[in-house]
Amino acid sequence: MKRVLIVKVTSLGDIVQALPVVADIKRAYPGVQVDWAADEAFAEVVHWSESVDRVLCAPLRRFKKARRWADFKAIWASIAELRAYRYDFIIDIHGVYKSAIIAFLARSSKRIGYQSQDLGERGAAFAYTGRFGPRPQCNAWHGMRISTGEALGYEVEGPAIYNLRLPEPASLPFGSNSAPVAALFHATSKDDKKWPLTHWAEVGRELAQRGFHVVLPWGSEGERAEAEQIASQVPGAAVLPKMSVTEIAQMIDACALVIGTDTGFVHLAHALQKRTVMIFVATSPSHCGIESPFRSISIGDGQSVPPVSAALEAIDYVHTDPHAVSMQSGSAAA
């Protein structure tokens, strides 16, 4: 096998969590070239992966919103780039019309996608010459790894490897503060996924008492107003300036702790191996959650609002020294 194309178009968290399939493929087939097709809005995230050989992108989301001629021309030009190579396999781990169209336009006789019941849009099935097996009984992220392995003939081994390298920041928004930084990602794209501002303020005050410098990023004016409301109740907390995706990623990489709802940047924190707590209010932690022993944890059942006590227990957990736990277990066994 010489070349594989992965199609995962959006969004930030989904793309980040899909990246480990590239390391899996390269472990199974040393020397293989792995390309990735994504929406232009998220292409920079794929560029951070040291495992991806070639990133293909087009302004699909922007064209859908604005219908500009310049964006249409950019999409048309991207098709030639997409067809520059013939692929041994095309793996569509997105499963909607736009990903299926990309898979269909690319050059390969083997285009693999989800079974009809597992597709985000059933009409996407037209593009595929083969299908993954039934959706595995695991979270969505590990499921993508298993499905890709089944399609390409290898078994998944070991933990997820994201292999991210961010560009060096010119500066950080919290300056040279020597205190460890805790970022609170309170904002989310859907109101039903929000955690109460009073809960955020209570957690922020506890972190400040523990010696953390609490910072609050935001993306819209409404989110900034909420960040300011939280910061007004947390000693020393700072509302960060407006930042790009790359700048937020660099900020996350400099943090000692990240706490947030089920959003892309919190998934990125997990991928960057930061100590991370993800709060689930209205989405499924068993399907979309994160977990790494003593480093990342998901809280909530996806049907109710987790209490502040659950978040504080999770913070204690991700700051637990696993070596000390191992020593205590050994002593108990003795």
From TrEMBL:
Q: Which family does it belong to?
A: Belongs to the glycosyltransferase 9 family.
Q: What GO MF terms are annotated?
A: ADP-heptose-lipopolysaccharide heptosyltransferase activity
Tell me what topology the record assigns in the membrane: Peripheral membrane protein
Catalysed reactions, as listed in the record: an alpha-Kdo-(2->4)-alpha-Kdo-(2->6)-lipid A + ADP-L-glycero-beta-D-manno-heptose = an L-alpha-D-Hep-(1->5)-[alpha-Kdo-(2->4)]-alpha-Kdo-(2->6)-lipid A + ADP + H(+)
Q: Which InterPro entries would you find in this protein's record? A: Glyco_trans_9 (IPR002201), LipoPS_heptosylTferase-I (IPR011908), LPS_LOS_Heptosyltrfase (IPR051199)
Q: What sections of the sequence does the record tag as coiled-coil?
A: none
Q: What is its EC number?
A: 2.4.99.23
The protein's superkingdom reads Bacteria
Q: Where in the cell is it found?
A: Cell inner membrane
Q: Per UniProt, which keywords does this protein have?
A: Cell inner membrane, Cell membrane, Glycosyltransferase, Lipopolysaccharide biosynthesis, Membrane, Transferase
Source species of the chain: Paraburkholderia ginsengiterrae
Question: What is this protein's record name?
Answer: Lipopolysaccharide heptosyltransferase 1
Asked whether the keyword Nucleotide-binding is assigned, the reply is no
Q: What class of enzyme is it?
A: transferase
Q: A GO biological process this protein is involved in? A: lipopolysaccharide core region biosynthetic process
